[in-house]
Amino acid sequence: xxxxxxxxxxxxxxxxxxxxxxxxxxxxxxxxxxxxxxxxxxxxxxxxxxxxxxxxxxxxxxxxxxxxxxxxxxxxxxxxxxxxxxxxxxxxxxxxxxxxxxxxxxxxxxxxxxxxxxxxxxxxxxxxxxxxxxxxxxxxxxxxxxxxxxxxxxxxxxxxxxxxxxxxxxxxxxxxxxxxxxxxxxxxxxxxxxxxxxxxxxxxxxxxxxxxxxxxxxxxxxxxxxxxxxxxxxxxxxxxxxxxxxxxxxxxxxxxxxxxxxxxxxxxxxxxxxxxxxxxxxxxxxxxxxxxxxxxxxxxxxxxxxxxxxxxxxxxxxxxxxxxxxxxxxxxxxxxxxxxxxxxxxxxxxxxxxxxxxxxxxxxxxxxxxxxxxxxxxxxxxxxxxxxxxxxxxxxxxxxxxxxxxxxxxxxxxxxxxxxxxxxxxxxxxxxxxxxxxxxxxxxxxxxxxxxxxxxxxxxxxxxxxxxxxxxxxxxxxxxxxxxxxxxxxxxxxxxxxxxxxxxxxxxxxxxxxxxxxxxxxxxxxxxxxxxxxxxxxxxxxxxxxxxxxxxxxxxxxxxxxxxxxxxxxxxxxxxxxxxxxxxxxxxxxxxxxxxxxxxxxxxxxxxxxxxxxxxxxxxxxxxxxxxxxxxxxxxxxxxxxxxxxxxxxxxxxxxxxxxxxxxxxxxxxxxxxxxxxxxxxxxxxxxxxxxxxxxxxxxxxxxxxxx
Length: 708
Description:
One of its GO terms (biological process) is insulin receptor signaling pathway. The chain is 51% helix and 14% strand.
């Protein structure tokens, strides 16, 4: 007998669309077999029930056997051996159609029993397993949906345990049911041949033993033919038993090996993520917007094919293109309180897709795989080896050298403060002596033992360096409709307003702020640290460039996250190769060492707008410089006017003092003359009173004193 195609039991746990498509072919074949067996059973039953119509029933059986080659079985329609065998049976049965009806007992034992067993037991078992598998598959899909909706917040542990147990039970039930269903369908291919050959063999033996007729030549031919058929049936049966035993052993092995995989989120210590993949396939939940603020999630099978991300729904023959992921960007996002979500954005930024993985392992593997594909590593001869070398290089990039601190101490006198110069290129360097800095070690550019900040901290919760705080400024929300509120926006008078979409990668303190090499070294260390520590999350913001400051605004709430005063931005540059990366250095007062200025480098990723952002910052600084010069000139003119006004006031005050002194002199002279005349009058009165006292005597004096 030729080889028989079979369903792969090893792929039942993956449950891919290809496996489902192959299962559909086997189910169609089982339906065709059932239809054909029902017709054959009815024909043989007519032989058994109607002895008077035996000749007609035998002729119908012969006819059906001749039509076997016209049947379109998806699996075995091209079996020439089976077709020729049935054709030979049809010829013999056609020759014996005029013979007497066989005994009912012999027909019941030799012909009707095997085909009845196949029809009532085997085919019904297939239908029952199909229904059970369909129920288990639906239960598993429902359990996965409930598990996907599980909140990432600290929820009720009892609910989480119940949902996890439900996923484990449903997945195990689906896997076991699917394996047994596949085994039954594979076995059906053997039982189909046995169920067709055994009844015919019994029928022919019953005919020979009952009638004892036929010519000797015909009998010899039949005996030889039937012997060959009997040998073939025994061979098929032995092959079937061996295959069933192998499939049962495979099922047992897979049940033991797949038990930990039934959990939706296996232990990452036992099943670590592979970060060097350039191909990945599996089920993901895709977010589809259904309205302005509403969305739905659809579970589909996703796989990578070269530089493309493909998706395939269950039952589809082939997949469809989702996105070109060459030079794309991928980052972790928070989306509708769901876990393990990440966003893929195309190279031009016009198309993006938000997907949700089932486990943390799949979540990290998908992000690493898409990152590797976006770098076009898959085009090389050994992509996984190259990806491993890239990841190893990233690991070595942030490995501190043994003499890190000593080199900083030896190079510290070499860094002398130099006056900043104007920016002359898109690199945004404010220093003109970059040749001297390039001779220094890169370790001298970054402060030793400096932590890397990967998240944006709200200015309400922590006082960030360079974050200017004023009353009513922190957390102020920008009106998205352009309506004027009660207070004036601080950037209302600015003549420059440019908005860019950026994603914050990280920030760290640096030792030098005079060369673009500082920005390049900070980019290298932050990207390497993200790759090593598996930090994929990036906060998307709107960067607003004005003549006063740089602002990071929340795109959803329009709340200002960070504000960087423009005079404090002393250096800005884009990456030499990847123009999407840019950064700037902010000089602030205070830091890890008090009473000294510190410099912090902030790194961002944009949508191919790094040079535009640097040009915009340079234009803003030029406008701010001219405005500052105009302001200083205006203040100087005002100071001159104030000095003149003060001198005039002093002159007027001196004149007023002289006038007051003259007036006071006149008043003193007049007062002196008045006092002199008053003194003379008092002297005359005193003299007259003395003369009167002398005339009155003692009694008169006492009387005057008492009156007085």
